[in-house]
Amino acid sequence: MSTRDDRLVRWRLVLGDAAGSLLDGRAGMTADDLAADSALAWLYERGDERAERDLRDRGGGLGGASLPVPDWLSEVHRLFPKETIERIERDAIEKYQIHEVVTDPEVLARVEPNETLLRAVLLTKHLMNAEVLAMARELCAKVVRKLMEKLARSVKTSFHGTRARARSRIKIARNLDAKATIRANLGMYDRASRRLFIRTPLFVARTRKHLEKWQIIVLVDESGSMVGSIIHAAVTAACLWGLPSMKTHLCIFDTEVVDLTDRVTDPVEVLMKVQLGGGTDIGKAVGYAQGLIENPRRTIVVLVTDFFEGASQAVLVARVKALCDQGVIVLGLAALDAQANPSFDRELSQRLAQAGAHIGAMTPGQLVSFLAEKVRA
């Protein structure tokens, strides 16, 4: 009986059929190794084909018949660790366009919700029937809830006013500064009784430093390339909503502008309303924002787009310059997601920067920090 060599098995799984006789007929591989090899081959040895691949009998117990997507996904979840599963699912959806991963109710019932699947739901929801759409909405809600819980901590840290530590003459128990009181009365410690006597208790005022109200207008390009940014923009706007220092607006746009401010507290509903694709008129979106502004010097316009303008670039640049000249802070983001890897029109973004806009790519946490810095300035 051949002895299993972990290194050779890993290379076999990486190379697939290209490994040839590397393992001398794959001797030493366990049944699960063979099943993992088959599951990887089902996806990665399809080349440019889009049709479901026939799974050849590789001795892993899966048989020679065509393997349905739900069965293949079950094998993937059984055989691989979580990080690998997410990578395989992402490749299946984004590289090989296997939409059944998010349009088949049997598959949706098995998958672990994650951001990759949420992006796929938004890209394929127009293909879903009512039953699948309801399941997809539940998946969307689970992912959004996790994203909001994570971002809410950054929002709380960045925006909540700090507690003033000024001394107070009002002697109320809940305002006692215990640590300062102990330090100030250490000379009153009685070694015999091992007690600290308090001669001078210290109290603090508990008023908060309130921030002056700002208006935040988030404009999000709903072109297909911006799907990751759309998710995080909706979550960020929801987390900002209700802050005492903020009045938040959320709008999505293609060639038209849709104001979703009345739904901003429900990012799942916002995301399910998004219609990805179509043309882009960034200038029109900026023009809409101009009509919302109440106090230019207390307004930040966050423009989330790839800057590939389908309408007049001159109009867009002129409107951004007009906002900046009025004192509005314009922040153009080519990406707003966990990776912040942008793909955008650099020439147009440079023109907008010269007009006075801040241009970059940020994670949601970085955006929150940027906004907090500006409103506290």
From TrEMBL:
<dbReference type="InterPro" id="IPR008912">
    <property type="entry name" value="Uncharacterised_CoxE"/>
</dbReference>
<feature type="domain" description="VWFA">
    <location>
        <begin position="213"/>
        <end position="372"/>
    </location>
</feature>
<dbReference type="InterPro" id="IPR036465">
    <property type="entry name" value="vWFA_dom_sf"/>
</dbReference>
<dbReference type="Pfam" id="PF05762">
    <property type="entry name" value="VWA_CoxE"/>
</dbReference>
<dbReference type="InterPro" id="IPR050458">
    <property type="entry name" value="LolB"/>
</dbReference>
<protein>
    <submittedName>
        <fullName>VWA domain-containing protein</fullName>
    </submittedName>
</protein>
<dbReference type="InterPro" id="IPR002035">
    <property type="entry name" value="VWF_A"/>
</dbReference>
